[in-house]
Structures are given as C-alpha cells and as structure tokens.
Write a structure and sequence with these properties.
Layout lengths: L2 H13 L3 H20 L4 H4 L2 H13 L15 H21 L9 H9 L9 H8 L20 H6 L1 H8 L3 H12 L7 H7 L7 H10 L12 H7 L2 H16 L10 H13 L11 H43 L3
Helix pairs in contact: 1-2, 1-4, 5-12, 6-11, 7-16, 10-12, 14-16, 15-16
C-alpha cells in the first residue's frame, strides 16, 4: 500500500469518530500530514488528487470557512427554528413557575409575528411606510399587545391561545401576567426582538428563556448581525454606503446606513414615553406634542430609507450575497 493511501485511511478513520474525539484526532492527522510533507522533497507533488481533496474536507470540518447563516442573528434556517422552539418551551416553563399558563408558540406563529412588521392586511410594505413610516411612533398606543387593535407584531407572535388566556384574566392578573412574561417593556416580545435583532429590552420570562438559548454577545444592544457586518466590508458596499450617507445628509438626516434609522426612532420614542409602556391617553401635553413631531420625522425618514434600500442598497447587497453564498460553505 503506498504512502498516499496510508494517510487517506488514517484521516478517514479520524472523521468517522464521535465529534468529541474527532477534533483531537483531526489535529493529529493534520500534524502528521505536515510532517509527511516536510520530509519530502516536493510535498505538493507527492499528494495525489484524492489526498488533496481529503485535506480540504478536513479544513472545512474545522469551520474555518463557515459563513454566518442568512437568518436573524446570523443563524441558519435550522438554527432559527430550533432556537425559537427552545425559547418558547422555556418561556412556558418559566410562566408555569410564576403561576400562569402560557402555551409555547410554534415556529410558524413566531415567524408570523416577525413578518407582521411593517405590514397590514391588504397593504404592502411601500404603502405601509408611506402611511405609517416604520410603524414605531406612528402606531404607538402604550397598551399591552394582547389588547392592541390593528397593527401589533407582538400580539401576532404570541398566538391566539395566549391572547385568549390573557383576556380571561382579571385586570390585576393581566398586569401581573405581562410583568412575568415581558418584565417592564411589554412592547418587545420574543418575535419583535428577533425581527429587530435586539433583545436588550426583553424582560421577564422572555428574557430568562432567551439567555438560556442565545449567546451572551447576542443579548447586547449593540449586537450586529455578522452577515451584515461581512457585507458592509465589501468595497462595493463601502462605496454604496458613502452615497447613502450623503443622501441622508442632503435630506437633513444624520444616518450612515439604512439600519441606523429604526433604532434611533425607538430610542427617541422611549425618551418621550418613559420607556414605551405609558398609554397614549396618559401622556402629558408636552409628550404628546413631542410624539407628534417624532411621527412626522419618522414618516419622512422611513420613506427616504425605503427608497435608498430598494434602489441603491438592496441591489448591491443581493449581488454580494449571491457571490458569498454560492462560493463558500455555510
């Protein structure tokens, strides 16, 4: 048996071991290959095509070339489904421990809540933005999501069963229920946090569940999707973002990226409404006036952002993503 075949057998044996043992064996196998190449006069010529392919396969198993997933928080579709199911099960467990009933929402239910962002029945995203901007300050009510009429991604993501459970509680128990579920910020449900990729304002059982499933860095307010960060480094996107930043400034807005506008609107809304949980009816006259100005500002910046995204940003981003995800393993 020649040298190539001997090394192929060793590496294949390493790959067939359980994952815990495999890492150490792969390192040993790679070290052996290195010694073997060093001891030959022309290592690259000694390796046959099949041996080269196998070494490349070992490198890919180590995850050195792995791209972020294409879903929220850089997850793959499978990771997103699994994490949603885990979090929802943990929320239900935590709520039971608090003395309340909560039915773990399915992936489809949570996904519907995420997709409900910037949409209403019979109204596409463009028309929605023209009327309501991002739907942040313009549709603010300060009510619990279960009691909000019309636009409410948080309510959609909770599912009908949990809405019914909530409505059957007494007013005092409803307050206690939502504090157990959401903490102090009942406008940021799990589905909403996923969609905006920001869990920093999630609280209660929702936050406790998320902390057990997502990584610590994903819980930070300044977390940025690694897929988007990778895209922003591409020279074509760097040039595109310069044009976008200038377009914002020409219109009187201080943003450098389409992703900057929505978080800023939320921050301004929280400042006006004391965290976003004060019912509109209880806002002071000054707060209502400030909210009215913010709503006009939101509509204007949202219309410009939509135009810049659809006409300038998205075509470049789509091209970069097609190239990245067609060439390298995920």
């Amino acid at each position: 048996m020649n040298s190539d075949q001997t090394f192929i057998r060793k590496i294949r044996a390493a790959l067939s071991k359980p994952i815990i043992r495999r890492t150490g064996l792969l390192i040993l196998a790679l070290a052996a290959i290195g010694i073997f190449l060093f001891s030959t006069s022309s290592g690259r010529n000694v390796l046959s095509d099949s041996t080269e392919m196998l070494v490349m396969g070992v490198a890919s198993v180590t995850g050195q070339d792995r791209l972020p997933g294409t879903e929220e928080f850089g997850m793959s579709k499978r990771e997103l489904v699994q994490n949603i199911e885990k979090v929802e099960a943990l929320i239900a467990k935590c709520m039971r421990e608090q003395g309340f009933e909560y039915v773990a929402a399915s992936y489809r239910t949570v996904r519907r809540g995420m997709n409900a962002d910037k949409s209403l029945p019979g109204m596409g995203e463009k028309r929605f933005i023209e009327n309501y901007g991002f739907g942040i300050s313009t549709l603010y009510t300060g009510k619990p999501p279960q009691l909000t009429d019309g636009y409410s991604p948080a309510r959609v993501g909770l599912g009908d069963k949990n809405i019914e459970i909530y409505k059957n509680l007494s007013p005092a128990d409803q307050i206690a229920y939502n504090y157990a579920l959401f903490g102090e910020n009942n406008e940021i449900s799990f589905a909403v946090g996923l969609e905006i990729e920001n869990f920093s304002r999630c609280g209660g059982c929702t936050r406790k569940a998320i902390e057990q499933v997502f990584r610590p860095e994903q819980l930070r307010a300044n977390y940025y999707n690694p897929k988007d960060a990778l895209t922003n480094k591409d020279p074509r996107m760097v040039a595109t973002l310069k044009k976008i930043a200038q377009a914002y400034r020409d219109a009187g807005f201080e943003y450098n990226h389409p992703d900057d506008a929505e978080p800023d609107i939320r921050r301004r809304l929280y400042e006006i409404t004391g965290g976003g949980s004060v019912p509109f009816e209880k806002l002071s006259p000054d707060a209502r006036e400030a909210l009215k100005k913010l709503q006009a500002y939101e509509r204007a910046v949202a219309v410009l952002t939509y135009k810049l995204e659809s006409q300038v940003f998205d075509p470049v981003e789509d091209r970069i993503h097609r190239e990245l995800y067609s060439r390298r393993p995920q």
